[in-house]
Amino acid sequence: MITIAIHGAEFFAYHGFYPGEQKLGTKFIVDIEVEFRPVIAGIRQDDISHTVDYEQLYDIVYREMKHTRKLIETVAQSIADGIKGKYPFADTIKIVLKKMHPPMPGKVDYSSVTVIV
Questions:
Q1: What torsion do the CA atoms of 49, 54, 56, 57 make, to the nearest 10 degrees?
Q2: Residues belonging to the active site
């Protein structure tokens, strides 16, 4: 089993349930892990078409983060769906989406959602 991962990808986006969140926006941090069983011959050939390209993972997240949504659960699921569409051979996809400094009465570093498919 191989795991390809991106950790700490930062985006500024406008996701949030409240209109003010969608107007002001905030920083989000995304962690992605994709597990798959490699085609050993392809890996030994040093061919990127036989693996998960982390640049493509970033591009999927980048596109999804541009679409404002009320729930970060929806955003994380859309990212996972995009990855599964691009890499149907993925066995497990884990997305952790952190919303930095959510609007709370006190100091909160981040809220987060984890989606595993």
A1: 130
A2: 99
Burial (CB count <10 Å: 0-12, 13-18, 19+), residue 85: exposed
Q: Is the pTM of this model over 0.90?
A: no
Distance, in Å, from the CA atom of 63 to the CA atom of 83, rounded to the nearest integer, reads 12
Q: Give 69-89 pLDDT, tens digit per residue.
A: 999 999 999 999 999 999 999
The domain locations on the chain are 2-116
Query: How crowded is the C-beta side of 51, counted as CA atoms within 13 Å?
Result: 17
The pair of structure tokens assigned to 9 is 């990808």
DSSP H/E element including 99: strand 90-100
CATH code, 2-116: 3.30.1130.10
* Cβ–Cβ under 8 Å, residues 11 and 30: yes
